[in-house]
User: Fold these one by one.
Assistant:
Number 1:
Amino acid sequence: MKITRQEVEHVARLARLELTEQEADTFTGQLDAILAYVDTLKELNTDGIIPTAHAVPMENAFREDEVQPSIGVENALANAPARAESFFRVPKVIE
Amino acid sequence: MSSKYQVVIGLEVHVQLLTDTKIFCGCSTKFGAVPNSQSCPVCLGLPGALPVLNRKVVEFAIRAGLATNCQIAQRSVFARKNYFYPDLPKGYQISQFELPICLGGHLDIEAEGGTKRIGITRIHMEEDAGKLVHVDIPGVGDDSCVDLNRACTPLLEIVSEPDMRSPDEAIAYLKKLHQIVVYLGICDGNLEEGSFRCDANVSLMPKGSAKLGTRAELKNINSFRFIKQAIEYEMERQAEILDEGGKVIQETRLFDPNAGTTRSMRGKEEAHDYRYFPDPDLVPLVVSDDWVEDVRLSLPELPEMKRQRFAKELGLSDYDTEVLTASRELADYFEASLALYPQAKIVANWVMGEVTRALNEENRAISDCPVTPKLLAALLQLIEQGTISGKIAKTVFDEMYKTGHEPARIVEEKGLLQVSDSGAIEQIIDQVLAAEAGQVAAYRSGKDKLFGFFVGQVMKASKGKANPALVNEILLKKLNG
């Protein structure tokens, strides 16, 4: 096994995903197969090759430091499930 | 703390950059705007929005790297740091991880026993999160409010090696770093508003040991004084645990400025599994040698270089050079004044004395000083010409500070011209000696020390306007003659 069910549950918790028992089993099997394939890829010798961070061979896309209009408070909050004045309103975070 | 242990401190500093816009979008970074009024699909994390890197952020990072003796990486990559928190709309923070822009620098600090070199591990660019606030709005109750104006504001994270061995060394390092980023013009340096934030990694090890102990990460410290307090408290806390045979737990602890203590932020540990990976929305950053050289040439003179120059070229003391280079603005003011009145020690004394005192009384910035270098130089010339005494000059200075008027005009309007007419001075002296007949007798019977008293009385009677050299001369003649 490349991945344990426990690891799958851990990753799901980090991603705030709630898995049923059956889903956890299914994904464990699927992820296991994916990781096994990664092992196959690993057999290739990649010494001296820069890791690919991006699919397009391109570098340095910049913008200048010039202010552009923002979209406005009403647009920003248009999809908010809850708001208070011009704030997004969220359940209290416990620290 | 028991002397069995040696404290080891490493610091992570977040520097908010002085750009006009955010790191990945064109929204303004101006402080204090209406909540969420400075936001757009990119910094709100709306689906499909794409970040584009602000060129100036890269330039500022290179500046910081060069000023702290780092290597500038030819190729660096942005990465996603994944975690959930309501002030982080995308569910990840764009940062740099494996390939940061600057590596392997150092700063030299003044420590007990001489200069000490503190290593800088790395400097990377990242975006800030939004702000989670608790506002008293009717009906909101216990809920939190989110303002995303700050989201996507550019930051540099500057990570030191665990090279500091006392709270004082940590403070010396921070002050030096603070001075540099402000000099570089990349940060406003405002600690209270969070433009310069510090996390401290603190651990203890037995004295003489080479193996580092388990560290605690202290967060939420927004003044140099609190940093010292937090580290000192943490040293005591860890020493107590170790003395009792316990183990320090690696954790994040929040500093409580009211209690002067740190407390554990339980439950955030799991969130430390950040699952970094290269951000596919941003292409790699390649910095050419030419770019680095251009930035190097544009660097301002840094405080250390300025100090050396002031000492060497102007012959000023260590103390003077340190005070005068405390900020770039103060040093600029000093040099502008010096250009108009080229006597370094006199100018230095006035800048460090009257100018600084007057500004401090109102908590005003030097750039905002009503007495411009031109006015200060004009005042010093009046003293040199004997138009006014040094004592009266302070009165004129205060008046200039209040009104911004030329010193010559003030001297004329207020009738402060120095009296150098020996006849007039003689007259004042005669009056004083007549009024103080008893003291005169005492002086003549051998109480030499009274001389200063007579000078004071004469100066007072002349309202400070009498030429002090003449007063001394005539007074001596009259008393002894």
Number 2:
Amino acid sequence: MDQTDDIPNDYYLFKSCVADSLYPGIELSVKYVLDQINAGYKEDPRQSSCAGFGVYSGVVPLETNLALNARNISLASETENTDLVCLCSSCYSNLKHCQKLLSKEKNLEKDAKVIMKKIGMDYKIDLDIRHVSDVFLSRINDLKNTDQMYSLSGINVVTHHGCHYSKFFFKDIISGTFERPTVLDEILKGLGCDVVDYSEQFLCCGGGLHGSVIDCEYSRETLLRKLSSINEVKPDIIITQCPGCSFNLEHYQEHLIEESYMDGYIPVLYISELISILMGADPENLGIDMHVVPIEPFIRKLKVIK
Amino acid sequence: MSTHQKSGKNIPIRKIKRFTLNNTSKPINDMLFKKSGFKKCIQCGRCTASCTAAYLYQDYNPRELMRKFIFDDVYSKEINELIWKCGQCYSCRARCPRNCKAGLGVQSLQLKSVFNGNAPPEIINISKQIKLNLYKYGITFLPSTQRIDLLEEFGVKTNDQSIENSKKRESLGFKMDMTRINPLPEESLQEVRQILELTGFVED
């Protein structure tokens, strides 16, 4: 399934509060990569959080969620951009869900319109909502044509697609299926590395809401399954498309190594972080060195092209 | 018990209590609960076979939850505890042959539980924190939203590295405990605050 043809070259970036709080390098590297391929993007400080973290923790009411995101999507619609691009899977899922509910349920739309009028804003929510990995896949030829400092030849990669990217709006996955999304895989193959399958590919990253709110059992036990399965195929790196997934996949490794479920640390990078390193970005300047699993051993494995 | 004559054998027939689903959604008049699609559920169990939480917790079972949604059996203490075991991954939704979304029904009950003050104290706390974050900054998640004792959960090396990272934020132009480099302009913040007040998501 190829749905990449209709993605334009100019984007409205939607900021992720989880990414900017935990991994500022995600946003910085996304912008670095877009600059390198001469893609236009707009940053808008007026947008609020999408509140997805609170929505999936069961605490942000539907009415609040819909009104906040009617405002956010309307702000994007005010610009000349036709595509709102998310960096976080939960923003992607939550914004799309709000857009869908507002479009399909007249009563909800009516309430949101009343609120928008009260705050003095026009209501317009009909633009496309995408994930930045969709954009990268649609621009794979541009990514391949940039001057690269490193080659991914001989590198084994495993991918983890966020549940909130692939499981709720599964018909909108631009490559693969919800059982086996291949958006990240296709980008990585295009960049010349080997992508390895593992048995627990479908399984969530262990985030849930328990990881940060109630208790850690859900995260601990789920990551034992997930990371043990990844450990079996001995990848050089794990590539994600969600800041929350990156956080869980790397923070639980220390105990799993101590308990012999893993042979050693496996670095975790968000897709744009990897691409910017290949393009020669200094990891320190972009904050890519802020991962708790050090990435230097992985960078040393890369073959220098120039 | 009546019997049914077949091939000369007496086979007992159980009296089946028939029901319709017409009035079962009455008490929970909530869009998310309705969108779970419980009326379409055929109790096949694919949600449960796919569920991350069901694998882990023996008493958590989205198929059984959907059955309880059908019969409007959602007001017990047991349900109020079970709903907090869902990780909201929506594996149930992806694999459902009837396009149901058990996770949305759970989210609806979670919201009700928070609203009624019946949610676990940690959830009530995060709710307060998110209200405050959104009201003050228009942001849901700040660097400090991650609990410190949670970091201790990860081990000494990981924790040390995390502390190091929070210092590194400043070298990238970020403040230690502010999510964005450029905050929301005052006018935008006022709009967000109005939304929170109009929809009742503010701390008392």
